[in-house]
Write a structure and sequence with these properties.
Strand content: over 45%
Number of helices: 0
Order of helices and strands: EEEEEEEEEEE
Shape: globular
Oligomer: single chain
Structural class: mainly beta
Largest sheet: 7 strands, antiparallel
Low-confidence stretches: none
Strand order of the largest sheet: 6-5-11-10-9-8-7
Mean pLDDT: 91
Radius of gyration: 15 Å
Number of strands: 11
């Protein structure tokens, strides 16, 4: 773990998909839940600031990955349109900065949002890291740009 002022980061390596002997270093920002649990950003850190994310910025198409603790293969991403229906909003912004509750299907996720960089689409985005009532983590990013 690395610390820079009030920010914390995790440093790890990944292997190249084709040549398993080639490794790359990744740095990811740690987002802290309101309960004090570390949540690792789904995207590599690219110098993003700690700006406050507004509730209207959360609406749109998102890509999520649920980290299944029983799955020994790759967890698959799925897309969800997070809109603001009048009867039940998908995102509920909590009073603490960048804290949110996300309603997905039949579960509610407590987590944090932050500015991020989408390395696949090469543009700014918003990232999410959170967990359900059983502690199972879901990470995601808003699909923006290209």
């Amino acid at each position: 773990m690395l610390k820079d002022s009030d920010d914390y980061f995790v440093c790890h390596h990944v292997r190249e998909p084709v040549n398993k002997h080639v490794h790359y270093v990744h740095i990811r920002k740690i987002l802290w839940s309101d309960e004090g649990w570390p949540l690792v950003s789904p995207e590599r850190f690219a110098g993003e600031d700690n700006r406050e994310i507004k509730d209207h910025d959360l609406q749109g198409q998102w890509e999520f990955v649920r980290i299944d603790p029983t799955n020994h293969d790759q967890d698959l991403a799925y897309q969800v349109a997070l809109t603001e229906p009048k009867d039940r909003p998908r995102f509920i912004v909590k009073p603490t900065k960048n804290s949110v509750k996300v309603h997905l299907s039949d579960e509610v996720l407590d987590g944090k949002v932050s500015a991020g960089w989408d390395w696949e689409r090469w543009c700014e985005t918003i990232v999410f890291a959170g967990y359900n009532h059983k502690g199972v983590v879901t990470m995601g990013k808003k699909i923006t740009g290209k």
